[in-house]
Amino acid sequence: MPDLILALDITEKKKALAVARACAPHLDAIKIGYPLVLSAGLSIAGELAKEGLPLIADFKVADIPNTDTLICDQVFAAGFSGIICHGFTGMDSIKACVASAHAHKGECFVVAEMSHPGGKEFFSGGIPEQIAGNAIIAGADGIIAPATRPDRVRVLRGFIGDKKILSPGIGTQGGDADAIAALVDGIIVGRSIYDAPDPAAAAQSYAHLRRDRKA
Known about the structure:
- Helix 7 (127-137) runs parallel beside helix 8 (150-160).
- It is built from 12 helices and 8 strands.
- The radius of gyration is 16 Å and the shape is globular.
- An 8-stranded parallel beta barrel has the order 1-2-3-4-5-6-7-8, surrounded by 6 helices.
- The protein starts with a strand and ends with a helix.
- The model has no long low-confidence stretch (mean pLDDT 93).
- The chain is of the alpha/beta class.
């Protein structure tokens, strides 16, 4: 059963830190991306690290290898323990992200398929399978696959074996945590937790999944 990862896409720094602090006992990791970093600065990682949880940088890095390396190096220097990159930029770009992550004793996850409706427009026709395969060849620690489409997660699992799958789209986007739990290693939940009247209680509502995993 999966770890619970909070997608902390809040742009107000004070609120973001308060939500992280309240939810931390019920989480296994925190994922932050451009919304929070652009409003609060990359140094927000240091403040979130005080909660004692792994931090994943969801920058969906997608550039030439040299630029990817520069981005990833900055991310890990700031205190992150994982990074998410795109795979459609090709094998050399994936390898650059993986190399930086592993040089800093971190993890790299490659987006194989996205969770929103538009994700089906171009992440189709065998492309996600190719990306997943490339991710494994490049030495990535796992992939990102959509909780909104469990059938696709099952297919992609066949390409990556026991590597990790982190799965976004739970809750607000329509993904069912209980339906996807047995297929993935981490469920990513954002608005359904941080927009809830009581974010800590919302995070705790997934406790049965975490308890099963750690039993």
